[in-house]
Amino acid sequence: MRMLFAAVAAAALAVPALADDVKLTGENTKVTWVGTKPGGKHEGGFKALTGTATVSGGELAKVEVEIDTESLYADDPKLTAHLKSPDFFGVKNNPKAKFVSTKIEKADKGVTITGDLTLNGKTKTISFPATVSHAGGTLKVDSAFAIDKRDFGMTYGGGKIDDQVAIKVAVEAK
Amino acid sequence: MWSEWRATIFRHTPPTEELLGAGQYAIAPAAGSALVLFALALLILGKRVALPAAALAMVVGFGVANYFRRVFPWWPSGASWHWLPLLFLLAQIDGLLGQSGTPGWGRWRLRLGLGLVAALVLVPADLHHKWPAVMAGWPYPFHARAWPLVAFTLAVALGWAGSEAVTRQSPGGTVGIGLALAVFGAGFVMAHAHSARFADALSIPAAALLGVSLVALFAKVDVGTAVPGVALMLPSILLVGFYETFNDLPWYAFLLAGLPPVTVGLLALPPLSRLTGFGRSLAFWALCLGPTVAAVVIAVRAETLLSEEW
User: Fold this and answer.
1) Nearest to B195 among A80, A87, A161 (CB)
2) Which of A82, A86, A90 lies at the smallest CB-CB distance from B309?
3) Which residue has the higher pLDDT, A157 or B3?
4) Fewest 10 Å CB contacts: which of A5, B13, B182, B225?
């Protein structure tokens, strides 16, 4: 009986260590982008998002993020308005963007995160490198990668703006 | 003084490369293909095919320009405005059916029917959030839902009937050219609403109508069947643009830009229908471009087109 109680207690204590959900918000998770064009660039990001990062055995196991696209901002207010229009994000029709990881593998430096990114109503599987640390109850994730805006139906104004958009993600969450 | 004018013009002119792109991939293909097709049809088959040829030229002009510019997806996938090419096609077919011996009540049924379909597809359920003039109060949902549906349906049907009637009363291209200029003006308003896509969406039918009207100007034929698609697209794009874009334009800038097909229709009603000669021309241009000029002035005062929008 004592053995059984000890086993149950050990299992109960072990569960949080096995799978720890970290809440992601616009405060602790920064998603920013840099768009380039011949002879110039613009920067911006998203202010509001919600999500969960699951840490299991000290390793990042799953990430789910939902971004409020109306929180999009850019370094020029007119550009912010233009990006929210149907020329780009069409935020009235696509108020949410979503990323759900399907696989997280160890790589030479950090991990490679693979998952489905839904943007502008289009879903595409993407993979990107990331460095992850989980110490002292704080999860840190840093990643820099690029997406092709054409993959997400943003084909308008082709040629004026580079199709590759640099994305940076920085998480520091408890 | 001159430098101030130059700065003002710069603030309200799209970047040169954007203008060239719109000209090359939207306006020229739409106007060119509509003009060539309509002219060839008249030359080969004669003036008796003017009505079906004008309707077909509009559809071809729209399709060719959309192929090059990709303003709309070919098949609807999500956003309400994706349905506009299909609605444009239906309007052109309806317009043609209405000309082939259909009685007056039958034509009104076609116009009101398509206007209601367009309203059901395009009028957003939460329009009252963006436009408090459309109240959500008692008797809900009449103010919030039914009233915008009825108003939009009537705007399409009245604009269609009015502009078609005036076009038929004055064979030749003048009415078409006037309406095309008004729709280009509405495109300028949409550019100030920060949507190049919707500006192009208006420029394409305007250019196709211009192409057909230029031929009609010389051939002196009735091109009433070229108008229905434009009468549908103008209020539709302005409604969707008003709802989906982010800018400081007041609601009445969009409303005024959408009025010309309706105001032009006043010429078909007494006492204006009795006007002739210079008086009629003056009344036509005032009714056709008056609301557009007002909308453009309001847009220019409320917003700028700075090149830092990409």
Assistant:
1) A87
2) A82
3) B3
4) A5
The residue written with tokens 């003002």 in the block is B8
SS3 A67: strand
**SS3 assignment, position B49:** helix
Closest chain A C-alpha to B267 CA, distance in angstroms: 36
- The HSE-up count of residue A143 (CA atoms within 13 Å, CB side) is 20
pLDDT tens-digit profile of A67-101?
Answer: 999 999 999 888 899 999 998 999 999 999 999 99
**If residue B5 lies in a helix (H) or strand (E), which one and from where to where?**
helix B2-11
> Do residues B246 and A81 touch, judged by C-beta distance below 8 A?
yes
With contacts defined as CB-CB under 8 Å, which chain A residues touch B195? 82, 85-87
Contact with chain B for residue A71, Cβ under 8 A: no
Contact across the interface for A81 and B78, Cβ inside 8 Å: no
B-chain CB neighbours of A81 within 8 Å are 194, 245-247, 309
Which residue carries 């990323």 as its tokens?
A99
pLDDT in tens, B61-78: 999 999 999 899 988 888
B131 and B121 Cβ atoms separated by less than 8 Å: no
d(CA B205, CA A165): 33
Residues 6+ apart with CB under 8 A from A30: A45, A168, A169, A170, A171
**Between B295 and B101, residue with greater pLDDT:** B295
- Edge-first strand order for the sheet with A111-119 is A20-25, A49-56, A59-68, A96-106, A111-119, A122-135, A138-148, A164-173, A29-37, A40-46, A72-74
One-letter identity of residue B121 = V
pTM recorded for the entire structure: 0.88
